[in-house]
């Protein structure tokens, strides 16, 4: 909403920089990475191809893709001190652990202290490999299992599921997760990406920028929503009757409770990512013999659209997709980071390449200046 003095609450629709990475048209529901429509990428590209696209501005040929796959595979084994730290952390939620452990990775990075463009690119690749391993291994330890070594023969998505579950996933599960990673990889100046760019613009290091982004992603208004969606679905139950869903959702809306997974700052149409996740939720649910999550989700979607005119966003159907893939709820938001680290690092590299400190102004609304200073013994 526009306010006096040109200030817009939440910086809504404020253009805060230029970027060649992600094209977003909220009125038409268009999302494209480097001009390539997200629907085409979801249908045809792997997460690794998407990473290359975000980092280099073009899709890789076979040789370049092979090189990147090898570099990512080499990055997946976690440094021993970081594994030790992970084991020593008190029981904590996945995002808290990810934030701390990503920060710890900076201490073991082969390029620590080197801020050259080449070193920063290597950090981007390394962090993308390592963050997937951090999240999968944290999930293993939380479930009482031991870490699983990465399998270099597997793609990024399949290897993540393997390191998390100990089972090599089938083709449908691996591709579904791969598509989820492609869909989450970048989203222009989302709150976490903006946080990363603000940090990078001080010429702080790549790890610091990514830690800032992780802390920002954690919030329920951003990446935290996907876990909240699943909690809502579980609260209703896989076998919830249409009457129960209707009553519960309308009661929440009547109390002005926000339904997680709906609404968006930019999209005024369907979130193009939700289109794919909805389809995946239906297919995976049917295949797993649990069509109820999709059925209940669809009903919630109809009610929220009917009563508030709001569309499902990326987080709504990703919840049931991850649940059907057997992923613990605590990992849903960390998984967002497993993908978005590609976009964050692309934006950080872009910021460094054409940097100016990001330092906006605030409209002052405090006591009028000047106030009279009263010494301590007279207050
Ligand atoms: C995404 C989100 C943060 C965008 O926020 P925003 O652009 O600041 O929009 P607002 O929160 O001001 O919402 C505008 C109106 O829609 C309503 N609204 C927005 N999202 C809603 C939701 N998920 N459920 C119910 N009502 C919602 C608000 O209550 C507000 O209504 P009002 O004008 O009557 O007060 C917001 O839609 C939201 O909180 N969604 C739920 C969390 C979520 O899914 N986040 C992931 C985003 S990808």
Question: What descriptors fit this protein?
Answer:
three-stranded antiparallel β-sheet; Cytochrome p450-Terp, domain 2; globular; mainly alpha; 2 domains; Citrate Synthase, domain 1
Describe the protein's architecture and organization:
This protein has 379 residues and is mostly helical. The chain has 2 domains: 22-219 and 337-353, Orthogonal Bundle (Citrate Synthase, domain 1); 225-324, Cytochrome p450-Terp, domain 2 (Orthogonal Bundle). Helices cover 58% and strands 3% of the residues. It contains 16 helices and 3 strands. The protein has a 3-stranded antiparallel beta sheet. Helix 5 crosses helix 6 (117-142) and helix 6 (117-142) packs parallel to helix 7. The two termini are 40 Å apart. The mean pLDDT is 96. The site of coenzyme A has 17 residues, from helix 15.
Spatial separation of the terminal alpha carbons: 40 Å
Overall structural class, as computed from helix and strand content, comes to mainly alpha
Indicate the proportion of strand residues: under 5%
Any idea how many domains? 2
Strand order of the largest sheet: 1-2-3
Principal-axis shape equals globular
The number of helical runs is 16
